[in-house]
Write a structure and sequence with these properties.
mainly alpha; 8 helices; globular
């Protein structure tokens, strides 16, 4: 979907056009889910936060000032919900030898991230994983990530660089 189509759908959705919002949802769902899944490490929690995000976005889209900022706006909502969910977790982590939930039914038409890469991502800190998700999976720039996370874009680049080096080291070992 090109930018003009997206903007037109947002404008219609702001006028309570549910079909337009449904089309926006179809366009962005997989990116939202990927981000939530790799942030939270749990497919059920990822589904829950995406569902909450979409509901909030539907009821709050009238407050969106710039239609061209829809994607950034909805990811800001999702990011906040993921942060709250992460805070609610205890310090329990998935043991590295435990099998991770399969994502094949969800991502059937695309390349599945290999198990070793998923395990490596789980070894990153929450902020590192969030930044890697936003930059690589969603495609946001360091400036956009900085705005969403309320940190300087140079700090985002530093964290991203360190996280990528950690991933490389983990995968090389």
């Amino acid at each position: 979907m090109d930018t003009n189509e997206l903007i037109n759908l947002v404008l219609l959705a702001k006028q309570k056009d549910t079909k337009a919002f449904a089309m926006l949802y179809e366009e962005i769902y997989m990116d939202l889910y990927r981000y939530a899944y790799y942030t939270l490490k749990n497919p059920y929690d990822a589904e829950d936060v995406v569902s909450d995000t979409v509901t909030d976005a539907f009821y709050g889209i009238h407050s969106l000032k710039k239609p061209e900022s829809f994607k950034s706006w909805i990811f800001t909502i999702l990011s906040a919900k993921c942060k709250r969910k992460l805070k609610s977790y205890t310090k329990k982590t998935i043991p590295l030898d435990e099998e991770l939930p399969s994502m094949e039914p969800i991502f059937e038409n695309e390349t599945i991230i290999r198990q070793d890469i998923r395990k490596a991502l789980l070894q990153l800190s929450d902020i590192e994983r969030i930044i890697i998700n936003l930059s690589i999976i969603v495609g946001f720039s360091s400036k956009e990530i900085g705005i969403q996370l309320h940190i300087n874009h140079n700090t985002v680049r530093s964290i991203q660089s360190r996280a990528l080096m950690k991933l490389k080291k983990i995968l090389m070992d």
